[in-house]
Design brief:
Order of helices and strands: HHHHHHHHHHHHHHHHHHHHHHHH
Shape: extended
Distance between the termini: 142 Å
Number of helices: 24
Oligomer: single chain
């Protein structure tokens, strides 16, 4: 009885609601009474919904959709409606029906696009809705937040709004709900790639996500640090991947010839459709030209913005030792630790014994592990720490009982490590490894010769006399811990010597020498002319002799006949 008393006397269908919506937009003053009636209906339906929030309520969704569309036409009557809608979603979105929640979220998006709601309130609401168990809704909300924040920061950066959103979003990364934390991290990563939030605070917050309890959150943060630098290097002079050139289907959708599902809404080959397609392509090219003129200076790499790279790598190594994740996630951690060590020249001495236990030919992804070990070596690492790694490679990979591919991989890894730290190998072991240059396999021979060529230039005294070659010690091996600094521009002295010698030659040249040079040139020209005349006379005599020979041959043929 309570429900029947709150319902309007005549229920309206969807078609009638759409007709009413169009009429209210055309003439708002004439339909003020209808608006007040629908507003009372909204309040009554909302009271009913609060009693049973988990059940579907199509009447409430239709009324909210109507009021959301006509809110700009009635700013005084519906001044409190947007805030009421936001409060309703904040309180009941976890238990709300899926279709109703989706409809209300679309209405909030529409009100935000019309600037009837603030960006902070809508973003905070959507951050809370990341906990919903609706993947499509979460992706749509995340996409809206990214585009909305980008619009706010176009032209002039809004630091106040950015600070509020960052604080709320960074707190969400520590949420117990792994899905919400992962979605929030994806939003931060997209904003970094869109070049909206590229400060050190954002990078360090993403770095803190590498130590999250959730495995998916850790994997997302690790992939960010391992892939964002390469992506920015490839797209430094252009836009990001999301702003790349549209394909044919996306162009048709932008022109309005196809809907969001890819179904045609008009004849694709008609004159009007082709005209719209051409206009969409021109608009895209013009926007790209504008973006090209307004390019920002290249940003720093993400790894360079870490506040404490030494502490970060040590803490991540401790997490790696105790980790029970999949082996792929462990590989990501190894890769990130080695890359941070190589970028900042860190001394994480416990990393090399940890990687050493995975150096087995039967180990899955062993080539990646060897690459991580070689990447983490630099000139400041003590040779005593690297020497056991090379011994392990020699014992497990570079032996006669192994396959040819395994031996070649081991030799190439030793070469890469010794290129970064030449003191890491002993002379006896080096001479033994160089002897593989006489192996039957071509790949092993090439790997051994590359190691031999490396030490011919670095320190030929470690090699046997027969292997030292003719040119020895092109680049003298420096002692451990020393670094050679160049004074001025290398090779500038040679350039100065050549310029001085040329100036001296020009100044010492007398007029007599100039006259002699000119006479020599004239004599050479005369000799060339005389030789040319002689050659012409000789050629004429040869032609006359050939003609006489032909006449004699003809006379002999006539006599024989």
């Amino acid at each position: 009885v309570f429900e029947d008393s709150l319902q309007p006397p005549n229920k309206m269908s969807e078609a009638e609601m759409q007709m009413l919506r169009g009429a209210m937009k055309k003439d708002p003053k004439a339909y003020t009474d209808e608006l007040l009636l629908q507003l009372r209906h909204f309040l009554a339906s909302m009271d009913i919904f609060k009693t049973r929030p988990s059940k579907p309520n199509p009447e409430l969704s239709s009324v909210i959709s109507l009021l959301s569309h006509v809110t700009p036409c009635y700013p005084k009557e519906l001044s409190e409606f947007p805030n009421q809608l936001v409060q309703l979603l904040e309180e009941y979105h976890p238990v709300m029906d899926t279709n109703l929640r989706k409809e209300l979220a679309q209405c909030v998006l529409m009100l935000r696009n019309r600037s009837l709601l603030s960006a902070v309130s809508v973003s905070k609401l959507f951050f809370q809705m990341f906990r919903c168990k609706d993947k499509k809704l979460r992706s749509a909300l995340a996409a809206h937040i990214v585009s909305d924040v980008k619009k706010i920061n176009t032209g002039k950066v809004d630091n106040k709004t950015n600070k509020e959103l960052q604080n709320f979003l960074f707190k969400l990364l520590q949420d117990r709900n792994g899905t919400a934390a992962k979605t929030a991290l994806e939003v931060i990563v997209k904003l970094y790639k869109k070049k909206v939030w590229q400060d050190a605070k954002t990078v360090n917050v993403i770095a803190s996500a590498c130590f999250s309890v959730e495995s998916k959150v850790r994997a997302t943060a690790l992939n960010f640090f391992l892939g964002v630098d390469d992506a920015q290097a490839a797209l430094q002079d252009g836009d990001s991947e999301d702003e790349a050139t549209l394909d044919a289907e996306e162009l048709q959708q932008a022109a309005g010839n196809k809907d969001g599902k890819g179904k045609p809404t008009a004849r694709l080959h008609s004159k009007r459709s082709r005209k719209r397609l051409l206009q969409a392509r021109r608009a895209l090219t013009q926007s790209k030209k504008k973006d090209g003129h307004n390019q920002k200076p290249p940003a720093f790499a993400a790894l360079d913005l870490l506040a404490d790279p030494q502490g970060f790598s040590e803490k991540l190594l401790a997490v790696l030792r105790k980790s029970t994740d999949k082996f792929e996630v462990k590989l990501l951690m190894m890769n990130l630790i080695s890359r941070v060590i190589a970028t900042h020249d860190l001394l994480v001495l416990s990393f090399y014994p940890f990687v050493q236990k995975y150096m087995q030919p039967h180990q899955p992804k062993v080539t990646s592990i060897l690459a991580f070990a070689a990447q983490a070596v630099h000139s400041l690492v003590p040779p005593d720490v690297i020497e056991p790694v090379i011994r392990t490679l020699a014992n497990h990979f570079i032996t006669d009982g192994r396959q040819d591919e395994v031996i070649a991989i081991g030799l190439n890894t030793v070469r890469e490590i010794c290129m970064r730290q030449p003191h890491a190998i002993e002379a006896d072991l080096l001479q033994d490894l160089v002897q593989y240059k006489k192996h039957k396999d071509k790949g092993v021979v090439i790997a051994a010769r590359s190691l031999l060529a490396l030490y011919r230039g670095l320190d030929s005294e470690m090699l046997a006399k027969k292997d030292r070659g003719k040119v020895q010690d092109q680049f003298k091996r420096q002692d451990y811990g020393t670094h050679k600094f160049s004074e001025g521009v290398e090779g500038l002295e040679l350039l100065e010597m050549t310029s001085d010698s040329s100036d001296e030659d020009d100044s010492d040249m007398d007029e007599a020498e100039m006259m002699m040079r000119d006479r020599r040139r004239v004599e050479k020209a005369q000799v060339k002319g005389a030789t040319a005349n002689v050659e012409e006379e000789e050629s004429d005599e040869e032609e006359e002799e050939e003609e006489e020979r032909e006449e004699e041959e003809r006379e002999e043929e006539e006599r024989e006949e």
